[in-house]
Amino acid sequence: MRAAVLHEIGQDKLEVLDDIESTGFGPGRVRIRVRATGLCHSDLSAMAGVLPQPAPFVPGHEGAGEILEVGEGVSHLKPGDRVVVCWLPACGTCPACKRGQTQLCLAGFMNAGTPNFKRPGGDVFGFAGTGTFAEEAVVDAGCAVPIPDDVPFDIAALIGCGVTTGLGAALNTADVAAGSSVAVIGCGGVGISAIQGARLKGAAEIVAVDPVASRRESALKFGATRAISPDELPDAKQQVTGGEGFDYVFEVVGRSATARTAYENTRRGGTLVVVGAGALDDYLQLSMFELFFDEKRILPSMYGGGDVLRSYERTIALWRAGRVDLESLITHRVPLADINEALDQMRQGTALRTCIEI
Q1: 22, 77, 207, 303: least buried by Cβ within 10 Å?
Q2: What is Dmax (Cα atoms) for the chain?
Q3: Cα distance between residue 140 and residue 111, in whole Å
Q4: Looking at per-residue confidence, does 76 or 110 come out higher?
Q5: What does the alpha-carbon distance between residue 129 and residue 264 come to, in Å, rounded to a whole number?
Q6: Are residues 147 and 156 in contact, defined by beta-carbon separation less than 8 angstroms?
Q7: CB under 8 Å to 114, separation ≥6 — which residues?
Q8: pLDDT of 24
């Protein structure tokens, strides 16, 4: 079968090969025919070594498809079922799951160290234990979440990561208050989803901050009340909040420099939500005095900060009701053979989400 492979960490191109075989099928596992997958910035981060991931590996973790085969002991799925790929499944038995914080379950991360594929040259891993830049993938049954028939594969793929992460940051983690002021730094697919979440919660002012003009234009269509470049943020802070700072600031880039900017633009007593996935060695510096004196809440948001399965269901309900726009998030479409074109679109900031059609 075909799959896009990164041979070594640090390479910026993927090679589409046709000698890949999915491995690991057995009890408790399922084989999925991937139909659509989105390119998430986390894929680029893993390729660059910002996020830890063994190589060689097949990127992709935001996918949807249909079940081809189920292993022994899998009773909730059958061949032909339409599913979204959940890269962070909950085991249901660990302390985090028992506390209701299923997004903090580590079971899914354990899958990342087990090869999902092989080729004549040896084992190949799947990013985050999945690897959706492939025609097929074998994953734990918990990674395959059934979706209704009216949800297209491309929409379902977005729900598998970016939309759930962004919407959840606003709805779950921040629980944005109606009438509040919000700034979102970084307006790709996840940032746009956070903007939609803030709009749903009734935020009065939503300021989108991004260096790319096309993304700023898109942000206005998705609910931002104004869209600015990073160097315009000080003026926006003054105009919108009288210089006090925003009630909520979402950092959706994953860098300490933008997190520091987000902190400085959050009002005293306000909330900074860290959504971007950053590097292990990139440290955010804050003085003990400002932590005490400003009393700003710093809230990291992992995969939307809530129960993933409930978040999927909520997003589908909101999409059906026309309360969130998911179709317009897909600004580009490419076949798997042109995957490197999708990487360039992401790096250049020209795409909100590129759908890779497999």
Answers
A1: 77
A2: 63
A3: 9
A4: 76
A5: 36
A6: yes
A7: 24, 125, 129
A8: 93
At 78, give phi and psi (nearest 5°): -145, 160
Token pair, residue 79, equals 């061949």
Burial (CB count <10 Å: 0-12, 13-18, 19+), residue 210: buried
Token reading at 291: 């932590």
Question: Measured between alpha carbons, how far is 237 from 95 in angstroms, rounded to an integer?
Answer: 41
Q: Which amino acid is at 34?
A: V
Mean pLDDT value across residues 116-143: 95
Token pair 């390479």 is found at: 11
pLDDT bucket at 108, cuts 50 / 70 / 90: confident
Mean pLDDT in residue range 201-230? 97
CB burial of 346-356 (b: ≥16 within 10 Å; e: otherwise) equals beeeebbbbbb
Write down the pLDDT at residue 107. 81
Nearest to 189 by CA among 3, 353, 354: 353
Answer yes or no: is pLDDT of 244 > 90.
Answer: yes
CA separation for the pair 331, 230 (Å, rounded) = 23
